[in-house]
Amino acid sequence: MRATVLSRVTRVMAGVLLGAVPLAAAAHGRVQAVWTSRHVRFIYQGFTTYYSCGGLREEVERMLQKLGARDLKVNEYGCVRGAGVETFPGVQVSMQVLVPAAAKHVKALGPAVSAHWQNVVLLAGNSSLEDQGNCELIEQFKETFLPLFTTRNVRYESTCVPHQISYGTHLSAEVLMAPVPPVHGH
């Protein structure tokens, strides 16, 4: 009988502890963060895939949106041709990103928000061959833009070889993201 009572107590305690784990994990994953401005000029240099200024602008804008940038302005920069592929297309970017409220030397653009960590995949290693053609841009994006965001657990693998397209390049990171606004019914 004693073993049965201990077994029940153990199950009850385990249930209480396991029930508390998601709450503790959720609280642990929240970070007080503030929005701050970031500005950068970027010139793409590729040997395999070439972009028009508009094409580069669209690709960079799409990736920055995935990372949670707000008040995003991406303008073409240093473009020589009116249309078509550029030798060295560029973009000028102005945006706001989240940083921990406790960070030093940060100019906050408003009150702190309760942010969370979210895994963002910018290029999956098993994505289409067409998407893998962006491997040079992904490599340069990782060096220029990713450090402007608050990230952790960055995972980067590259099979990128000039003048060749192959599978296997991957870039992902956990990014500090803004809370999702509630959806209101009509």
Strand content: 25-35%
Q: What's the pLDDT, averaged over the residues?
A: 81
What is the straight-line distance between the termini? Answer: 58 Å
Number of strands: 6
CA gyration radius, whole angstroms: 22 Å
Cross-sheet strand order for the largest sheet: 2-3-1-4-6-5
The portion of residues assigned to helices is 25-40%
The major sheet is characterized as: 6 strands, antiparallel
Q: What would the principal axes of the Cα set say about the shape?
A: globular
Number of domains: 1
Query: Unreliable stretches, pLDDT < 50, 5 or more residues?
Result: 1-27
Query: Number of helix segments?
Result: 4
Helix-strand sequence: HEHEEEHHEE
Structural class by sheet pairing and helices:
alpha+beta
Describe this protein with a few key phrases.
six-stranded antiparallel beta sheet, 32% strand, 6 strands, alpha+beta, 186 residues
Task: Describe this structure as you would to a colleague.
- This protein has 186 residues and is α+β, with helices and mostly antiparallel strands.
- The protein has one domain (31-177).
- It has four helices and six strands.
- Strands 2-3-1-4-6-5 form a six-stranded antiparallel beta sheet.
- The radius of gyration is 22 Å and the shape is globular.
- Residues 1-27 have low confidence and may be disordered.
